[in-house]
Amino acid sequence: SYEILKMAQESNDKGVKKHLISYVLERLQARSSWAFRRRVAYLGREISSDEDTKTAFEQLIPANLALGQPVISAGRDIKSPKFIVDGLESKNNFWSGDKCPNWVTVELQEAYLLQRVEILFSNGATGLPRSYQYSVEVSPDGVNFSEVVHALDKKKEVEAQSTLHYIHFTKQVKYLRLRVESSSRGKTVCVKELKIFGLEKNN
């Protein structure tokens, strides 16, 4: 779909361009998965000439900036870190990292002014309640990180649930890292989903 939109962008034939854009828009609207729409929907919005089509593409851009984006971890994985950006929250669908401290980093498509991050922890294969001591860091370049969430004093064991943190950071960033220092049950960290929300550069 992205390649088709690039063809439309380069075409000098208005009829062909309109047809290709409409074709891609219909395909996107028919897809049930949100994870990989962002790149295509952004380009569709950018090259569309009429406001209705721009709005249609806009509505296909997921609010969760992390969906389908590249993700890496410290490398000590029991289950792949890609599970935290796939939009699925099923019981057995989670990243599992061994030997805390451990971390996972999401690379966003572009720089954003982040507003909040939502972490959906998992109780892992055992299903037993646990607590994590963790922090969240952001970076414009993937090298220099600044801490924006400090949750290293959490001790009470609770059923794994969604944890929402508002981010007060005035600079646009392209990377977000979840760093887990310890777990109350062994050294394993389990995260179902990492959701990131923010504003585009133009807003």
What are its keywords?
203 residues, alpha+beta, nine-stranded antiparallel β-sheet, 4 helices
Question: How would you describe this protein?
Answer:
The protein is an alpha+beta fold and 203 residues long. It has helices at residues 2-10, 14-30, 38-47, 51-58; strands at 71-73, 77-79, 95-97, 102-121, 132-139, 146-151, 162-166, 173-183, 189-199. Strand 5 (132-139) and strand 6 form a beta hairpin. The longest helix has 17 residues, at 14-30. The model has no long low-confidence stretch (mean pLDDT 86).
Topology:
Elements: H1 2-10, H2 14-30, H3 38-47, H4 51-58, E1 71-73, E2 77-79, E3 95-97, E4 102-121, E5 132-139, E6 146-151, E7 162-166, E8 173-183, E9 189-199
Antiparallel strand pairs: 1-4, 2-3, 3-9, 4-7, 4-8, 4-9, 5-6, 5-8
Radius of gyration equals: 19 Å
- Rough outline: elongated
Number of helices: 4
Strand element count: 9
Name the helix and strand elements from N-terminus to C-terminus, one letter apiece. Answer: HHHHEEEEEEEEE
The overall average pLDDT, rounded, is: 86
Estimated structural class: alpha+beta
Question: How would you summarize this macromolecular structure in one to three sentences?
Answer:
The protein is an alpha+beta fold.
